[in-house]
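**User:** Here is a favour to ask of a fellow structure person. Please take any protein you like and set down a full record of it. No explanation is needed for now; the record alone will do.

**Assistant:**
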Amino acid sequence: MIEQRRKDSYQTIGRCPVLTYQVLLERIQRISPVTVALISSTPVPSAAVATDFRADKALMTRTTENFPNPVKSKAWTAVMRCLAGLAVVTVTTALAVVLTALSNAMPQLLPSNESQPYEAYSSIPQFLRWLGSQTTEAQFFKTELGGLGMLLGGWVAHIAWKRGRRWAGFPISYGTGLWPWAVGSALLGLLLSDLAWGWTSIATGTSQPTFVPFVSVSPAVVLVYGAGWSVAVTGAVLGAALTTPIALLAVNFVCHPLGLPAVTGSVTGMWGGALIAFLLARRLPWMPPPGGPFFADRPDEAGQQSVPASASTASSRHGPGWVVRRVLADFTEAPFYGNEIAAVGLIAGTVLAYVLNLLTPVQGSGLLPAVLTAQALTATIGILLYHRRWADAGSYPTFVPVVSVAPATVLAYGPTVQAIVVGAVLGALAGPPLAAQISKRLPPDFHPFIGNVLSMTICTLTIIPLLSILPGFTAVT
């Protein structure tokens, strides 16, 4: 009988170690104070040693599963982001190696760009081809197939965003719903620029920066002032009348004589023309107040519910898939798309043009594989390096070196490993933070792209010439 009671007491203590122990002491105290003193010298079971019991072990296991270690989770996500970035660079490099190896066996089914300045104004089809190729000149591609792919991809992304599809990717034109008006103004500005200033290409026999309205003032005015024909046409006219002549002067009378990259003059025309354009827009009586009808083409409410909330800003969603999508989207930030579907169309069309004739993209230089590798590398580095800025602010100008320093370094020093890597790294380190600092100091009715292109000017003016003093960097003649 006594042995059975002892076993029951042990089982009770095992089920509730602390409470039963105290009750036991109170009961024994009534019998013998000496016994209490002896028992009190043994340590009282506590939460620190409660894990010795089976029930507490089960509870701890369930708690660990329900609440994972946040430090380990963040570290693991960071590792996965780096692996995704490495995969992007590896795939791009492999594609570049394959394209380079097959370059001698590729057919020449497309006419090259060498004769385009002379033939562009000889017939309507040639002019349309010239116009289409200029839609990708900001990315250094300059191929009509890439431009057509980007426009089709942008249209698909806009329709998908409007219908609230999950696969729509990053909201095109930053979710303003103004993509049709922005691209319409950009195309009209490009057309006016070619009609007004295209004679410079014929006179010099070289490609001139008549493309600049397409990726600067024309769509930016729409994004600041909203939808409407008056806004779109005004943006197109201001773009053709201001950005192109400034770019022409900078390229022909500064860059060429001093041996500077032509992109420096092009982006100078963009920010110089934009400063004047937005000052004028304040005083034009037909212009609405800034921040006009941004959501003129809202997505359907029913469909919008299926789009992940804060898909582009929630840090919890910034995993490896986000890195891949963001790298792609950076290829279309220059024309204010910022969407991976449009980027897939852009890159696919450009690669197809290279396969059909390797002298078609990148001004007929044959450097598309190296340029594409440098762009993917600098975008990946910037996105991984400034991931926290993306998570906090929802956007960050990591695309700046994609359309400036990285490809310009390859064009200046050739398709060498050092030109690709050093240009990509330095561009990713310097370009985005400088652009962000300039943009946040602009007036509210000045589009922040001004800071981006000004950063491109400064970085290309400093980084590319300074590389010539390093061993292994010899300027291409």
User: Anything to note?
Assistant: Confidence is low (pLDDT under 50) at residues 5-21, 31-67, 300-315. The radius of gyration is 31 Å.
